[in-house]
Each structure stands twice: as structure tokens, then as C-alpha cells.
Amino acid sequence: MATILNSRLAKLRALVVDDMPTMRQNIRTQLGQLGIEQVDQSATPNDAIKRIRNTNYDVIVCDYNLNKETNGQQVLEYLRSQKLLSPTAMFFMVTAESSYDSVASAAEFQPDAYMVKPLTGGKIADRLERLLDRQQALKPITDRLQMKDLSGAIAECDTVLAAEPKWIVDILKIKGSSALELGNLNDARVTYKKALSLRSDLVWARLGLARCDQAAGQLDEAKKAVTEVLEANTQFIDAYDLLAQIAEAQGNEEAVLDAFNKSYNVIPSARRSRLMGDAAYRVGNLEQARQAFNKALTHTRGSLTAQASDALSLAQVQVDIGDAADALSVLSAAAQDHQDDPCFAARQATIAAQAFARLGDMNSAQAAFASAKELADGVRADIHTLTLAKAAFCVGLDEEGARIVAKAIKADHENTRLVAFARRVLQDTGNEALIEKVVDESISEGALIVEQATQLMRAGQFDESLAKLEEALTATPENTGVLLAAAQLHLLWMSQKGLDRNYVERVNAYLAQLDVLMPNSERVAKMYRFLRETLVKASVEA
User: 421 and 451 in contact (C-beta within 8 Å)?
Assistant: First the structure.
């Protein structure tokens, strides 16, 4: 095949991932004939991940069948979930199996293109050209999205659509999700309905309408819409995830588990195993949780995609079931794989303390607890902190266990999962009598601070209100309830008194912290909308 001269392709840097040397070289040759001269090669998933961490690739061509431990879909899942790919990177999946179509359509992380062997330079060029055309056309929109300017992105959607109508489906998808994130539910509904009027098979648009119902608090309607999608096709992973979110909002943990069980049957990935294991553990189905975390370990064994949490979660479940010796074996094996993980040692010691106590080796249990306590010093109080409380109870330090539980709840009293797990810890360790004293009183204490600050604000005592919240944040700097209240009170003050740049900076700092603590939270999204509306109002009045 003659060399195809294309200045756009010549600028690209590519990575070919395939365990067969002849295939790697063949694809490299095909890319070279297209004018792509910067082509690296990887024979294993681990080497590919290492390269991608250190190099900004424009194109990744990856074989689906790589080895027994990790396939191409798992590599893509890991890269996307860990945000290792640049927003403009194009991921091509290559397979000899036409059945991959069903895998790709169901997967939550889809490749930009997939191609069936044998590959030709013409096939690759056609896909690259189309994707580059799409990138160029949508660039004004994606630039706005990268700046988190959702209103600007929506405006650009209309502009680009007028100039590039061929990309209408892609544009409507972005416009609908942006409107939904901004809380403009009516606009989002109109956009999703317009997409469905073009093509009735656009599942993302049907799920978008369900998300509008969810955001409006119409959970039964949202559940009905998602159920209808799944009745038409049981393969859509996003639908199961949304069903799980709705079930959790309704307080139905069994339905959450059922949704994740079904999603695992569609895509038996490590991430699905973790979701299934976490849900099973929350409802007390320890045997299913054990099986799920075991599967997660199996999916990622020997791979960089392995996560320390899989072994730690499995060991915790084994302790709870009564297999303390097996738990210690799992921890010992995992320690060699995750010795560079700064969080692993603390959680390992916490679970080991419980295991030794179960085995009656109290000297080792107390030593492990002392180590866990030292390693956890200064670490954010969260659900993992509660396992330290569980260890304290196991080694007979009941008062210390109660203090740890109270501290964790006071640090994040509005976190429903944290509170539920705290109750579970007290029940599992035979301390049900402490639930009202430790859990309920700690929740009330945190809620009281927010309520007092709100009342001071309503009375016009803003400085006093702020001082109350700042005092709470000094004691519990990552309390999401207090951070939300602080952001809200600053915004309320500015909506009444006018713009204050110092307050805008504070609110941005609060929201940035909440983005980390509460990713994808609707409450945080509402605060961002409130901030934007406040800034717009202030600029108009100025």
C-alpha cells in the first residue's frame, strides 16, 4: 500500500498493544504507511499501562485477547476509570471475534472504535479521519466542558449544530447531560426527546429522561423508565447503575444488590465484582460478598489493574464469617503486591487485629491494633476508620472503639453510608446499646451546629454564623454537611448583599473540596449552579 500523506495523521503518536509480535509489527507497519511515524509497542497490559502513564498518546490500538489475566476491555476500563487517557485520546479495540459488538455496546467504558481482524491501513485511516473530524467539529464544546463552563458548552452546542448538523446526535447527548448537570431539567427533557424523535433506539436519551425524573425526586417514575429500558434489552450496564442509584435513594439496599448482580452477569469485570461485593456486604450477605471480592482478585491477579481494596475487603469478610486464618493468609499475600501503597499497611493491621482476636491470640491482636492506630493517625475519618473501631472492640478497648465511632460520624454526620456502617460495627461487636448514645448523639451534634449557624444567618448575624461554621471546620475539616452549609451561607449573603470576591474564592474552595469528598453529588452540583446564578445576578446589577 502506498504511503498516504496526511498532515493530521503524521502529527499523531500511537501505541500498539498486542501479545503477538507479528500482529504488533503488522499494525505498526499499517500506521507507518498512513504517515504515523511515532509508534510504540507493548506486549503486555502492564507494560501498556506504564507507557500510558508516562506518555500522552493520541491513538491506542489494543487487541481484545491479551492474556489470561487481563483482556483489552479491562485495560480500557482501568485507563478510563483512573483517568489516565487524555480527553482527545482515541482507543481502538481490535478483535478476531465479531461477538465483541455485544460486549462493546453493553460496556460502561466503550472504545472509540473497534475493528475486526484482519486490519488494513484503509480501515484504520477511515476510523481515524472520522474521529478527528468529530474532535475538530466538537472542539468549541469540549473546550468549554474542560473549563467546567456548562452554560457555555450548551451555547456552543447550538452554534456547532447550526454549522455541523451531521454531528447532531453527539451534540444532543452533550447538550442534554450538560443541562441535566446544571439542573435545567426542562431543557434536558426537551433535548432528550428531540434525540429520540430522530432515533428511537438511543438508550442514553431514554436514560437521560429517567435521570431527569430522578433529579426531580420522582423516583418511582425514574425506576419505571429504567425498567422499561431493561425490558427491551437486558444488556445496558448504565441502566443497572441508574437502577442501583434509585434503589439506594429509596433505601432499598436489597434492590441495589440485585441491580449489581445483574450487571455483573452482563459484564463480569473487576469493577462489577467490587460493586456487587460492597452491596452484598452492606445487606449482610457475607458469603456473596466473599465470592464477589474473590472474583475481583481473580480478574486482576498479576496485573497493574489490581487494587489493594480487593484483598482487604475479602480479608474483612473472611474475619466476619469466621475464617480468621484465611484472612491472615490473604493479607500476607497481598502485602507483597501492595507494599508501596501508603494506605494498605494501616488497613492491613486493622483487619489483622480483628483476625488475631478471633483466633484468641490477644497479644498479636493488641500489637496489630497499636500499629493500626499509629498508622491511621492524621488520616481522614471515614468508613475505613470504622474498621479501626471494630478492631478496638475486638481487643477489648470498648471506650476507645466508641470514641473512634463518634469521631468518624462527627467528621461527616450527613454521610448515610458511614452512619449505616457505624451502626453495623456496633451491632457486629455486641454493642447495640451504644447506638443511641454514640451514633445518634454524634449525628445530632453535627446537625445542631449547622442549624445554629443557619439561625444566626437568618437573624442577620452573618459573622457569628460564619464563626460557628469555621469552628466546626477547624475540628472536622472534611465534614461534608458543614462544608455545604458554609458554601450555602456565603452564597445567601452575596445574593442579598452583593458580590464579594473573597467569599467567591471561599465558596470555590469549599466546592473543590466537596468535589473530592462527594464526587458526582447532586447537592454539590446545585451549589455550583447557585454560585453561577449569584455571579450572573451580581454582574447584571453591577
Answer: no
**Helix %, strand %, coil % for the chain, to 5?**
70, 5, 25
Beta bridge partners of 63: 94
* Residue 379 domain flag: no
DSSP 416-447: HHHHHHHHHHHHHTT-TTHIIIIIIHHHHHHH
Check pLDDT > 60 for residue 2.
Answer: no
- At residue 209, the 3 state secondary structure works out as helix
Q: Which of 87, 110, 136 is the C-terminal boundary of a domain?
A: 136
User: Which set of grid coordinates corresponds to residue 150?
Assistant: 456548562
61 strand-pairing partners: 16, 92
Task: Tell me which H or E stretch contains 61.
Answer: strand 59-63
Domain containing residue 32: CATH number: 3.40.50.2300
What size, in residues, is the chain? 542
Residue 145 falls within a domain, yes or no? no
CB 409 within 8 A of CB 446: yes
What the block records as the C-alpha cell of 528 is 455550583
Domains held by the chain: number: 2
How far apart (Å, rounded) are the C-alpha atoms in residues 5 and 125? 11
Q: Which three cell numbers stand for residue 361?
A: 491470640
1 confidence band (pLDDT: 50, 70, 90): very low
Question: Does residue 148 sit in helix, strand or coil?
Answer: coil
Expressed as residue numbers, the domain containing 491 is 479-541
- How would you write 307-360 as a 3-class SS string? CHHHHHHHHHHHHHHCCHHHHHHHHHHHHHHCCCCCCHHHHHHHHHHHHHHHCC
**Single residue among 83, 102, 136 that ends a domain in this structure:** 136
pTM above 0.90, yes or no: no
